[in-house]
């Protein structure tokens, strides 16, 4: 017999019907870094009973300032493995699929086509893979939400949810919009972004490996806030379907 007693306080707030909706929902989280790890945990703790998590990266010591799976004891371990153990420790009855590799565009297409996800959460922090995932979701009529850039920002009150066309003062979102325009995609899906002041002095260039040419400095709470806002949108959208 499945034990849902740990969700007692959630049921008190949302009611039995909405809780059941969450329990039977199926959510995909792509990317388990600063945004995705917190998003995945909030989704799990809400009672969502079916999840797929994807990340092919391993924990690095520099992740400890912002990523949920990053501890001294987990450095060098796969983020997907660490998060899987954590999520199952929260909900042992969770129906969890773990994909511990970087997905190719064709992998995402096949996964989304064959799986009936109620929501996809795009927490990828590199532009090219993100564009492919967004394009796939739109082409497959898959409901999704996408995270923009949490780096270079410190104003927690400036974290916002809106259509991709409404995002502003976010270099990452600007780049995403520009790339999407080449595919005739201008609007039609929700993103989380931060319109606050950008700390440009925190920019660092890279060698271009792992799809990244540069990155901004980050602070502990900002990626977590992005993950929280994403999870809140998903959970409340799923709940709203119960009349």
Number of strands: 9
- Average pLDDT rating: 96
Question: What string, H for helix and E for strand, traces the elements in order?
Answer: HHEHEHEHEHEEHEEEH
Major β-sheet strand ordering: 3-2-1-4-5-7-6
Main sheet: strands, sense, barrel:
7 strands, mixed
* Assigned CATH architecture: 3-Layer(aba) Sandwich
How much is the radius of gyration in Å?
17 Å
Instruction: Estimate nothing, just give the exact number of structural domains.
Output: 1
Structural class determined from secondary elements? alpha/beta
> What low-confidence regions span 5 or more consecutive residues with pLDDT below 50?
none
What is the terminal-to-terminal distance? Answer: 28 Å
| Number of separate helices | 8
CATH superfamily: NAD(P)-binding Rossmann-like Domain
Structure explained in plain terms:
α4 links the parallel β2 and β3. The protein has a 7-stranded mixed beta sheet with strand order 3-2-1-4-5-7-6, with helices on both faces. A two-stranded antiparallel sheet has the order 8-9. The longest helix is centred in the C-terminal third of the chain and has 20 residues. It has 243 residues and is an alpha/beta fold. It has 8 helices and 9 strands. The radius of gyration is 17 Å and the shape is globular. α1 packs across α2, α2 packs across α8 and α5 runs parallel beside α6. It has one domain: Rossmann fold (3-Layer(aba) Sandwich), CATH 3.40.50.
